[in-house]
Amino acid sequence: AGSSPPSPFPSPPHGLPRKPPVAEGGGGAEEEEEESARVFSSYPAVRRVSIAVDETNVLPGALQLIRTLRPQWETERVKTKLFTEGITNKLMACFTDENMRDAVLVRVYGRKTELIVDRANELRNFQVLQDNGCAPNLFCTFENGYCYEFMSGKALGPEHIRESSMFRLVAQEMAKMHRIHTNGSLPKPCLWHRLYKYLNIVKTEFIPSLEVLEEEIHWMKEHLSQLQSPIVFCHNDLLSKNIIYNKTEGHVRFIDYEYTGYNYQAYDIGNHFNEFAGLNEVDYSLYPCKEVQLQWLRYYLQGGSGAVSEEELESLYVQVNQFALASHFLWACWGLIQAQFSTIDFNFKFTLYCSKTPKVSMHYKKK
């Protein structure tokens, strides 16, 4: 993963500039917020309901929201389902139809998640994706969350995204998302700002030293920026359960847009490849081999049709595997923050996570 990518820079999928802008800096929080506000200023305000939902007891607040959003529903006919796989939020579905075709999802923000998630930006990104046919309808926001349309289908598991027939759909949907342009300009990637932000929140007793890790980020930024990966509209958190497969319609859609935003193309793909190893029981031997990666990347670059050269395929492969290292670093910091503040029981194996990326440490030592 430490070698330099072959030249020239690969042809990007449909609609992406061949010579994308390269961010010289990560951008501070104020600069990022100003850019985000400018990009998304054309979207209407989302309906707001003045209700706060108890994170530890979602049902009463969820039913109160439903009475506001669906006044025609008879309360005694409303069924609920609490989803238990969330890592940072609580999620409950409210519905009257047995098949959940009319379900309203109530998403309650987890404790202290505002430290790692820009909630205003999340909602704007939701609107962008909805406008481009990539997200369900957003119904309203409330004091500590929002309500949106249920997306029919099956949430995938790690075993599904490793299947060729399924990862073809995932690659094509990611290419579609990466082609989204909000106003013709491309903001700076969010990666570096997030890394520095997370690092500043982590308790110092959990890490070697801030200076060492800041040097590591500085090296990553200097090296990865030179790869000239296009800056595109990314999901940034495409683990398997964030992919919904609709068998009837034969497509997949992505959910959970907390970390969505402009970022490096290769980061989004590399981050997804890391998720092949699973979430609760991590097995890095399941990280896709080169043959599988090249097949996935070919689907991505084709976007459903068109020829792809071996040169551009190999170049993107090298970029993706280098950016996958940045993904490991970011989620390690994220995991420490979650362990410090979250009330949701999630066993984040930080030691295992680091031990399974020896190439990262070896590469940095060589540098």
From TrEMBL:
GO-annotated biological processes: multicellular organism growth; phosphatidylethanolamine biosynthetic process; post-embryonic development
The pathway is: Phospholipid metabolism; phosphatidylethanolamine biosynthesis; phosphatidylethanolamine from ethanolamine: step 1/3
GO cellular component terms attached to this protein's record: cytoplasm
Read off the Pfam families from this record: Choline_kinase (PF01633)
Query: Does this UniProt record's set of keywords contain Lipid biosynthesis?
Result: yes
Q: Per the record's keyword annotation, is Lipid biosynthesis included, yes or no?
A: yes
Pro residues bias locations = 1-20
Q: Give the E.C. number(s).
A: 2.7.1.82
Q: Which GO terms describe its molecular function?
A: ethanolamine kinase activity
Instruction: Give positions of region: Disordered.
Output: 1-37
What family is it from?
Belongs to the choline/ethanolamine kinase family.
Q: What is this protein's record name?
A: ethanolamine kinase
Annotated gene: ETNK2
